[in-house]
């Protein structure tokens, strides 16, 4: 590559932070500034000499700003190879001036669609007008010709470019131009993926569930996390457009840097908290809830959730669907308790101070404020992806929430209304437990969880062991059917008094007979909740 001194720069930005200041630096170095519409006004108002792009093209901005930079005098100046005589001759013949530096960022399409939701979807025409055409075209032209042109799409890069220009007599190094070109193409890829996904979502139907080509792109949240699943693995996190409450867009209030496992566990914890309207807290370990509860207050929910498995709760991740208050914070800092991270809608000031400045682990715990939490705040465009070698799988997230109207009362005995409520609570929790999943509950408190076992009866035994003496009088939720009667027999023998499962086994009759023998009610939901 060759080094070209910057003589003319083009500005056309939606995010105008730092724009006028950077333009002034360039102008003071003798660089001629071109700009469009609002960007030109901003720069001119700052007292920086600037030409309107329409003065170069000979055409005014038209069609409500849809057409302003799509012109040979702009793209010729961006794409011309400075060391190719025919290109240079064409520029001279047609009066095209070379453009050596471009500052462009795109219309806020992602931010616009993020304002919508299930209750108030964004107006389609408003979103359409935020699909940038000229911006991505200029970005791609400049990035393609990065041998000669510097493309700046992120205001945080202005300072780096300015430093190089000053140190290199008005030129930008090959290395930085390449880096910025890569960043530019990543921006347009992410932008197009967001537009494509939004357009498809509007046309999605039962006959057309997934697009013929699935695009996913994100912006790096941290260049490098503390480490991956293990300390010898490196990792990064990429954030896509915000469509609801998520860990990805939560505010990091402090604590140790986040690791790969922290993000995975926090996402699992928040996913469970998003299921509930009542004050709720859950304790997550290796993506599985070892405790979860609803109660009248966040502190009461936390104490009930923690009691589900205090041993496993050590070093866990927590999620709340209410602001974390001082009583919750004091519960955590009292005694021999330790957590890695907490996500909540917000943190009361005194609670945050207790957690951040308290003794022991306080300075290390990671706190994330995510905004409102509940079923209505779940992200609207929810896909789950699993990467395979040379491919990936895509599916809808499991958002099913069964009610008693879905119940098939399979046994002679019927559950009481209190048992039904507990079974529904258990059913919501099983969705978030690795299969084979068994959850034991009393009221709205998890007592024991059996997760990830190779046989369902082993998951039952594990859940019973975790529940201890409290298993007496509990109800059981299962994410999938019981293939043999042994699982329900083990549960009933331990003291389980009602069971919920999807049903569908060829041995359902034998399983129902085992319940009838002991007078234990069982309901079938008809919906499986495997989580691999």
Topology:
Blueprint: E1 8-12, H1 19-28, E2 32-35, H2 37-45, E3 51-52, H3 53-57, H4 72-79, H5 85-94, E4 101-104, H6 109-114, H7 124-129, H8 134-144, E5 150-152, H9 158-167, H10 174-203, E6 219-222, E7 237-239, E8 251-254, H11 260-273, E9 280-285, E10 288-294, H12 298-307, H13 310-313, E11 316-320, H14 326-333, E12 339-344, H15 349-357, E13 366-369, E14 383-388, E15 391-396, E16 408-409, H16 417-430, E17 438-442, E18 445-450, H17 456-467, E19 475-478, H18 486-494, E20 498-501, H19 508-518, E21 522-524
Parallel strand pairs: 1-2, 1-4, 2-3, 4-5, 11-12, 12-13, 19-20, 20-21
Antiparallel strand pairs: 6-7, 8-13, 9-10, 9-11, 14-15, 16-21, 17-18, 17-19
Helix pairs in contact: 1-2, 4-8, 8-10, 12-14, 14-15, 17-18, 18-19
What does this structure look like?
- The chain has 532 residues and is an alpha/beta fold.
- It folds into three domains: 8-202, Methylglyoxal synthase-like domain (Rossmann fold, 3-Layer(aba) Sandwich), CATH 3.40.50.1380; 244-377, 3-Layer(aba) Sandwich (Cytidine Deaminase, domain 2), CATH 3.40.140; 404-524, AICAR transformylase, duplication domain (Cytidine Deaminase, domain 2, 3-Layer(aba) Sandwich).
- It has 19 helices and 21 strands.
- The chain has helices spanning 19-28, 37-45, 53-57, 72-79, 85-94, 109-114, 124-129, 134-144, 158-167, 174-203, 260-273, 298-307, 310-313, 326-333, 349-357, 417-430, 456-467, 486-494, 508-518; strands at residues 8-12, 32-35, 51-52, 101-104, 150-152, 219-222, 237-239, 251-254, 280-285, 288-294, 316-320, 339-344, 366-369, 383-388, 391-396, 408-409, 438-442, 445-450, 475-478, 498-501, 522-524.
- Strands 8-13-12-11-9-10 form a six-stranded mixed sheet, sandwiched between helices.
- Helix 1 (19-28) links the parallel strand 1 and strand 2.
- Helix 17 runs parallel beside helix 18 (486-494).
- The longest helix has 30 residues, at 174-203.
- The two termini are 49 Å apart.
- The model has no long low-confidence stretch (mean pLDDT 90).
